[in-house]
Amino acid sequence: MSGVAPSAAPRGTAVASGEDAGAWQTLRRGVQLSPSLRAGIGGTLALAVVSTVGGAVVPVVIQQTIDRGLTGGGRIDQSVVVRLVLASLLVVAVTTVAAYAMKVRLFVASENGLADLRVQAFRHVHDLPVLTQSSERRGALVSRVTSDIDQVSLFLQFGGIFFAVSIGQVIVATVIMAVYSWQLTAVVWVCFLPLVLALRSVTGRMTSAYGRVRRSVGEMLSVIAEPVVGASVVKAHAIEARTQDRVDAAIDANYRRQVEAQRLVAMTFASAGLAGGLASAGVVVVGVWLGVAGQLSIGTVIAFAFLVSLLVGPVQMATQVLTEAQNAVASWRRVIALLDTPADVADPGAAGTRLPDRPLDIAFAGVGFAYPGGPDVLRDVDITIAPGRRVAVVGETGSGKTTFAKLLTRLMDPGRGQVCVGGVDLRAVPFDSLRRRVVMVPQEGFLFDSTLADNLRYGQPAADDATLLAAISGLGVSEWFAGLPDGLATRVGQRGESLSAGERQLVALVRAALADPDLLVLDEATSAVDPQTETMIARALDGLLRGRTSVTVAHRMGTAEAADEVLVFADGALVERGPHGRLVAAGGVYARLHASWVAQSRLGQEAPA
Amino acid sequence: MSSRPGSTRRGFAVIGQGARAQRRLFSVAVVGSLLYGALTVADAWVLGWATDEVITPAFEVDAVDVGDLAIVSLLFVGVAVGRALGVIARRLVGGIVYFRLMAEHRRAVTRQYLRLPMRWHQAHPTGQLLSNANADVEAAWAVMMPLPMAVGVLAMLVVAVVAMLTADIVLTVVGLVIFPLLFAINVGYQRILSPRVTLAQQLRAEVSAVAHESFDGAMVVKALGREVEETHRFQEQAVQLRDANVAAGRVRSVFDPVLEALPTIGVLLVIVVGVQRVLSGAAQPGDVVQVAFLFTVIAFPVRAIGWVLGELPRSVVGWDRVRAVLDADGSTTYGSGVVAGSGPVALEVRDLGYGYADGRPVLRDVQLSVDAGRTVALVGRTGSGKSTLTSLLVRLVDPDSGTVLLSGNDARQLTHASLADTIALVPQQTFLFDDTVRGNVALGAEVSDEDIWAALRTAQADQFVARLPLGLESQLGERGTTLSGGQRQRLALARALVRRPRLLVLDDATSAVDPEVEAAVLAGLREQSTSGGPTTLVVAYRKATIALADEVVFLDDGRIADRGTHVELAARSGPYRDIVDAYDQTRERADREAAARGTGTGTVGAGDKTDAPVPA
Ligand SMILES: Nc1ncnc2c1ncn2[C@@H]1O[C@H](COP(=O)(O)OP(=O)(O)O)[C@@H](O)[C@H]1O
Ligand SMILES: Nc1ncnc2c1ncn2[C@@H]1O[C@H](COP(=O)(O)OP(=O)(O)O)[C@@H](O)[C@H]1O
Ligand SMILES: [Mg+2]
Ligand SMILES: [Mg+2]
Q1: Quick check: A555 pLDDT over 90?
Q2: Dihedral of the CA atoms A462, A466, A472, A477 (nearest 10)?
Q3: What is the ipTM of this complex?
């Protein structure tokens, strides 16, 4: 036994939604997770500051030109105007180049950082137990490594930079206005003030409106999947109308949410323009008044009208950009929450203890397990299995056999107790050692959308075609293989759906045999295969696994009869164990299961013609 | 995708279609946008007018004319109010047009999915169909969002030129240089950008496809320890996407600042020329101010035209994909017949032949007949075509040749409802909806609770359903992931039973169920069939299931190799015996071997201390 203490980790893990982290906290943690985002950020910000100056050129030139005698019939010195304009052109050129440099740096840094984040998150998902527990929708996990990260990148590159530049522009405009006239500045700001004050609440409403849109999109997508993924059920039962109703309802809900959100957007947009109009009127009225009182020049008044237009854009966009920011932060938060969900099924790596180089024994000590939010589905499992034994696991549906198999292969970690293989706590075994020596074949033979050869090679990428063919005949399924249209090059379709259910299981078995494990765990891996093929495979596996340990979950008691030992599960507990004969004699759960199987498999001989 | 001129023309065709479909609302949005455009120009005109008529005179005579100021204020505010109304019409109503088009096309696309036959579904990857209904619909119509604004801007440009002409002809010439330049740069920008954006979008879909597949197959990935390789596979795609995004970003980085600088340069030009014109007495200072202001307010909206042109290629690609679904035909056509009467129907299959898309014949010359009320077992090796045959019976696919008859009625002549009412198939692969237990069993039919519970009882699902926290109302989650395989299978069985079919087709429907439960299910079915229950065709391997059958049909490599009672087949067919007696043969061999070793099956190998039964 290894020295790793039984963990007190929570039983089963669900990925947090991350709703509770604050925005700054999210930002800090996000940048920490993608250090490339910080690369050259100082330079980028400096360039951003420079690039905001360009917008302020026009009002200043207008003011200068007017006050140097354009109006009022005074003679204006044309060479001064030309010099002024040339200087302005220079400023514009500099800010344009600065804006270009700033944007390129931003695109490169953010894309680098977010690509890293994407890959990290993807890898982390594979380290989480949720996938194998399937307690969370897989679609939601996919969106965390795709659209959530896209959202962040869009914001950094568009909304975020627009926001930064807008703030700069507002500040520059305000400074220039204040230099010209504090009174007019006050007039302008009073007109915009209500909007600025309302910003917070409008942004809040808009954020929740977009939150509702997003949720309705998720619901719509999941319902739209029904006529696609469940096409055969829909057609076989002629429930097109019901399915269409469900789909239509989801589409309508999504439509209504979108319109609600759009209403807010249109209103805020319109009111910013309104504030601009008020400000222009105010500037002219107060400006003329002050001008007549000798406090302002005419150029200043007109320059203010131009300055006001510099404010309208940013204020118009502010709520929308802030909403995007909220969405981006929420997305970022979800990705971070994913990465911060402890990978309790984590690879200990080089620090771990490799499995010993001998036949593997198995020991469960006080093992208990519950799926997130559910009751215990395994309780107090204590068992040792000697190396090289062929063990069968039987029990009613839902008694915990699959759960047992997943714990044994460390697809999940136990909530309580400890699982040891070869004397080492599984939590301490590096994955490269664990996955090479211990292989499980799950019930659903999942295949990747590729060729048969690629799928067979999945656990043993170096295997050549001859090795693949040898494994196929080694498992006694050459006859089936000979019937395939393109041999090893046969395409298996999405999830392997171009093969029959039993054929998929055959591929999964050959794939596992090729991986050449020392402990093979089969979870009803031949449930869709005909008995003849099944027994042939069982015999072939017997040969292949000689001297190795195997654990076979089976409904067909033939497997149990042939096993060295049988484990019987009932309602989450290991209730009986022993060789077939002794268990039958004991007259317990196993005897009953076996009797009903025998009754079934013998009925034929007694059945009336 | 490409910027072929054809794509622009076709893009306009798509736009035209959308605009026609939402004629009324689209017109409102365009009118709103025109109002907005005209009033934006009016804003500049008000400033110019105020400069010459109010501000300058006031400064000259050093006196305030309150009436004049009131007029200026009213003009500014009035223009702003009108413009705000225009903005609301444009953005809100324009948005509604876009959302409606999306909703309508999503409805149309999903209707097609429901209408098109399984053969079509099998030929199209799931991911593609999902994105047709979602991303492609969105891509097709996204152009409708900036469209009203672009139309408004076009009007605005016309009005602007007119306004400039009333100001000064030479200043107008400056405008006529800058505006087309702005326009051309916008078009060039979108032409260069859009293929890059389209590429990035494709790559985004690929990234998502890899993630989907990898997470779907997570069990296999984990069980075989392939996380590192999967991560590499994903990384390759992610890096390509990153590079595509950066490439698009570089184009944006060049054009955006230029587009921002151009109007400023225009204003500076106007000032230089304007000063000259004012000095020569050809123009008023207010004209210069007006034209300069026009440049400032128009610069941004002009980009809407670029947005529309930029969206066009994407819109064409999206629309083509949506169209492919909408135009797909080969729907299963149903007849108008019904199977008369009630009670079990007779099944007859004549000369049936079928092959999947790869052309290899899977079923050949299949003949099969089942009398009403009888039970027939279909036995055959893995891949022999049993599932294919069951799917032909319920017309999930239609045969390449031959017919299926239900009590003498050609299945193709029946209405869909009659067919579905007559036959229920329990497929080998269970699919559950993201719905409650009730929803999954009743599938929207009006079924009483008693009937649901009765069906659950026969399927041996009543106990675990009763233990669920909300019973029949418990939500099952996406594809029923919270249930074990055997539990899912039993719900699928109950789903078929509750419909009281006249022909029940079971495709290995108890494979994930333990022997005891299976025995109970079979007992329930037997009870049904003796009391006027359905005709039953059952794909089976186990003798107990076979024993339910009055007759056995042995399918070998797509042909009916033999038929008769189990005893007859067992007596005369070696291949049949090899399948159904496989367990007995194994047991006998084990017994023989054990006998040779001098021990019984009941004795264990040496040295296990724990082989006594553990008390429960
Ligand atoms: N992903 C899951 N989330 C919640 N409960 C689950 C999940 N998977 C299985 N269960 C529950 O755990 C219990 C044991 O399941 P399982 O180990 O699959 O049983 P078996 O393999 O013996 O049929 C069942 O009651 C099942 O409903
Ligand atoms: N969607 C499909 N596309 C192409 N070939 C298929 C598809 N489904 C099944 N097949 C092939 O048709 C044959 C019969 O399959 P199936 O009817 O599922 O067999 P069974 O149910 O008897 O195991 C198999 O060889 C299988 O590979
Ligand atoms: Mg199981
Ligand atoms: Mg099948």
Answers
A1: no
A2: 160
A3: 0.84
